[in-house]
Specification:
The chain has helices spanning 2-87, 94-106, 112-115, 132-138, 182-185; strands spanning 152-155, 158-163, 166-170, 188-193, 196-201, 204-214. The relative contact order is 0.10. The protein has a six-stranded antiparallel beta sheet. By secondary structure, the chain is an alpha+beta fold.
């Protein structure tokens, strides 16, 4: 009888000893299975935030690209309008034609090499200097125009015309080699070089006439 009790006790202890590690191992496996789900949940929470940040960056890039394209389009339209204004020949009265032609012809040089003086030879340019953004938008070699049809005055015997809100006065005579009606038919442009402003004729690109700018 005692032998049976001892045997039963031993068998029960053995079963308990086997069951306890097995239960602990099962709990560890359950925890391991739960842990990937938690990582996946965190990853899914972070994913919308990353996508939102990428979407915001894309929207900013698109806005910047649109702004640059719009600026380029505006500059092209302004340039086209300038060319159109230069090609248009508004009607002038005979008296206006006579006054303007006389002023231009009286200001023609007979000996350009000796009559011409650049701004350095004149002691430097001391007149009005236009803002950089205005200069880039309407002046320089890429912004040609025609003098014909622009507001015109004669001041002190020198021709003066208005372009884009600025009065441009010639302080140099114009070369005798230029055509008789260059001021009506030739494309010109204003550039800043060698510490002063000069008027250039596209038909004769190697010669610049010293000019003064005023409002």
């Amino acid at each position: 009888m005692n032998a049976i009790k001892i045997t039963s006790t031993a068998i029960l202890s053995l079963l308990l000893g086997i069951a306890a590690p097995a239960y602990a191992q099962h709990e560890q496996q359950d925890q391991k299975q739960d842990h990937p789900e938690q990582q996946q949940s965190k990853h899914e929470q972070a994913k919308p935030q990353q996508e939102h940040g990428q979407q915001q960056q894309q929207e900013q890039d698109q806005k910047q690209q649109y702004t640059q394209q719009q600026q380029q389009l505006d500059q092209k339209q302004q340039h086209a309008q300038q060319q159109q204004r230069g090609n248009e020949h508004p009607q002038r009265t005979r008296e206006e034609q006579r006054v303007q032609q006389s002023a231009w012809q009286d200001h023609r040089s007979q000996h350009w090499n000796s009559d011409h003086r650049n701004w350095q030879q004149r002691g430097g340019y001391n007149g009005y200097r236009m803002p950089d953004d205005r200069y880039r938008g309407y002046f320089g070699q890429d912004h040609g125009f025609r003098i014909y049809g622009l507001p015109f005055l004669v001041v002190g015997g020198y021709p003066r015309f208005q372009y884009e809100g600025y009065w441009i006065s010639l302080v140099d005579p114009w070369p005798e080699a230029w055509g008789n009606d260059w001021y009506d038919n030739d494309d010109v442009y204003v550039t800043y070089a060698d510490n002063g402003y000069y008027l250039y004729n596209r038909r004769y690109p190697n010669v610049g006439i010293a000019i003064s700018i005023s409002m």
